Amino acid sequence: MMRINKFISLCGIASRRAADTLVQEGRVQVNGSTVKDMGHQVDENADEVLVDGKKATLPKKTKVIMFHKPAGCVCTKDDPQGRRTVYDYLPPGYASFKYVGRLDLQSRGLLLFTDDGELLHRLTHPSFEIPRSYYVWTTRPLSDAAAQKLVDGVDIRDPEDPNAQEEIAFATDVYLENGFAELVLIEGKNREIRRMMRAIGYEIRDLKRVSYCKLQLGDLPAGEFRELTADEMNKLRQAVHLR
C-alpha distances in angstroms, 39 versus 16, 54, 94, 110? Predict the structure, then answer.
């Protein structure tokens, strides 16, 4: 429940002070009855509010969820091969959400879902240069020289396709840790990291995305999800210049 002036203000029709004037002038109806009590409370989910005969509607509340994708499930709604999909882990209420930046079958880690098409576009389009961080375990330790090649850029075209055109991919940063490497990318090409490693002669044992647009996976268990907090949502929208 909320005061009528707050509801009208949140709908973007008028400021709270101007909304009080609308109420006083008899220009507001709730469920078919004119309301002149400025303290009147409305239920945003049940009451119909008209201002000058037009329905007042709250703007859609964008939601984003963070999901820890396990290895072995696919980023698709329906899989012809009958494999488990990422949507099988989510409640039916999230069935219409779109995933942000897919992960391949054997990759695991942070996957975002949203019901906001514009936010999805800005989080995935290369022009916005959204950073994504990955932990990469290889069959042999990544050398300093190999790490530098990844930063300089490598050709990830299919070597078995004689008609393939040059396709350069690079990491903005590579950090060599004890037993694995952390790669930071700003573009999400199909199987990009696996193709980059193949181009420099390395084989991946395990691949995990740990952050996206500075959102950290943290200790969220595999197969579990959570909604972003209001603070996380604000920072996410600021990062892609979306008001």
Answer: 12, 21, 36, 45
